[in-house]
Specification:
Radius of gyration: 19 Å
Shape: globular
Oligomer: single chain
Largest sheet: 8 strands, parallel
Mean pLDDT: 97
CATH superfamily: NAD(P)-binding Rossmann-like Domain
CATH architecture: 3-Layer(aba) Sandwich
Helix content: 25-40%
Strand order of the largest sheet: 3-2-1-4-5-6-10-12
Distance between the termini: 39 Å
Structural class: alpha/beta
Number of strands: 12
Strand content: 15-25%
Number of domains: 1
């Protein structure tokens, strides 16, 4: 039996599907019975546990061979990341109490970076779980290709996509969430001791221009990227409702300047960019 957090999302869902297809039993860790119903229909156990409920998490993580851990995304954290620190403490305490046989933790490329940025939240997670007396694998994927979902409307409606990633011809380490989930499930079924880091990127690095080109090919019309000038970011993010946009801006700077990078030699995924873009268009109700 494997417990899977985030099962209603793209990565967690891929983890669960891979485990189920391998004949493994899965416990879906969800916040409500409604969210767990589709997984119960596929034969999963359902454990109700919110990320801030340590006792419920400990129960969800108990009596299993392995646990897949991930933190909820927070693109607008308070200064000093108090929200992330609380989640890390809750997860650590729950795992310490439950003592599953092993843990695979979703982290990120650049978790080791010393510069302040949004991904420091995952660095805090790695630090918190590193002191557990359990086998833990930290899976560090690149930028999710599915982030291009934010670009679909602009590609369809105007053919001009605003890009924070720049220069537009700079290759970025990206990965499809299907590949992330598939590898996480494979790692859960392995045996190891101590702590290890596994990094993952796609078959090839992707430039913003290639994303525009992929949309253009699929939509059958011209699509191009347009740089969003750095000096405008703070005002733009604030207008969009963010209270503390600086960590997000610093993260994008890290990708653009190259200091958010892998620490070692990453493994390679299989899913190409075009396949992801096609799926995003279909999900958005656009025929491709």
């Amino acid at each position: 039996m494997y417990a899977v957090m985030g099962i209603t999302g793209q990565v967690g869902g891929a983890v669960a599907r891979t485990l189920l297809s391998a004949g493994q039993s899965v416990r879906a860790v969800v916040r409500s019975a409604e969210k767990g119903a589709p997984w119960a229909a596929q034969g999963c156990q359902v454990a109700l546990a919110d990320v801030d409920d340590g006792q419920a998490l400990a129960q969800a993580f108990s009596a299993v061979e392995g646990v897949f851990i991930m933190m909820p995304s927070n693109f607008d954290p308070s200064p000093g990341f108090p929200e992330a620190r609380q989640v890390v403490e809750t997860l650590r305490a729950a795992l310490e109490q439950a003592r599953p046989a092993k843990v695979v933790c979703l982290s990120t490329i650049g978790a080791q970076a010393v510069q302040p940025n949004l991904l420091n939240q995952l660095q805090l997670l790695e630090q918190g779980l590193s002191t557990l007396d359990l086998p833990v694998t930290f899976l560090r994927p690149g930028w999710f290709m599915e982030n291009a979902l934010w670009d679909v409307a602009a590609a369809v409606e105007t053919g001009v996509i605003p890009s924070f990633l720049q220069p537009l011809d700079k290759p970025v380490p990206m990965i499809a969430t299907a590949d992330v989930g598939r590898l996480a499930a494979q790692l859960l079924q392995e045996s190891w001791s101590g702590k290890r880091v596994v990094e993952l990127e796609g078959p090839e690095r992707v430039t913003p221009e290639q994303i525009a080109g992929g949309f253009a090919e699929l939509l059958g019309k011209p699509v191009r990227m347009e740089v969003v000038v750095r000096d405008t970011w703070q005002a733009l993010f604030t207008t969009q409702g963010m209270n503390n946009p600086l960590p997000r801006m610093q993260m994008i700077d890290g990708f653009n300047e190259g200091w958010i990078e892998f620490a070692g030699m990453p493994r390679k995924g299989e899913v190409p960019l075009r396949s992801v873009l096609k799926d995003l268009l279909v999900r958005s109700g656009v025929s491709a």
